[in-house]
Write a structure and sequence with these properties.
75 residues; mainly alpha; Conjugative transfer protein TraD; Conjugal_tfr_TraD_a-type
Length: 75
């Protein structure tokens, strides 16, 4: 991945963290945000990993679809 593409990718991922409400929930504390993300990864590597990732994917898709339709979503 070239530098410009990588930078854009990282900015988009940061935007998702913001959009999900994690920045506000964690009071913009990077250690808290990082800890939360590590917790998610830990859970996703557990026994029900594929089920959990599939659930996240469905929830994210519904949120994107609702946003495209102009609706507000509740996580």
């Amino acid at each position: 991945m070239q530098r410009r593409e990588r930078t854009r990718h990282l900015i988009e991922l940061g935007g998702l963290v913001q959009k999900a409400g994690l920045v506000d929930l964690a009071d913009d504390d990077r250690a808290t945000i990082y800890g939360a993300l590590l917790e998610l990864v830990g859970r996703a590597r557990g026994d029900d990993a594929s089920d959990m990732v599939a659930l996240w994917k469905r929830r994210g898709k519904r949120a994107f679809d609702a946003e495209a339709e102009g609706k507000e979503t509740v996580a």
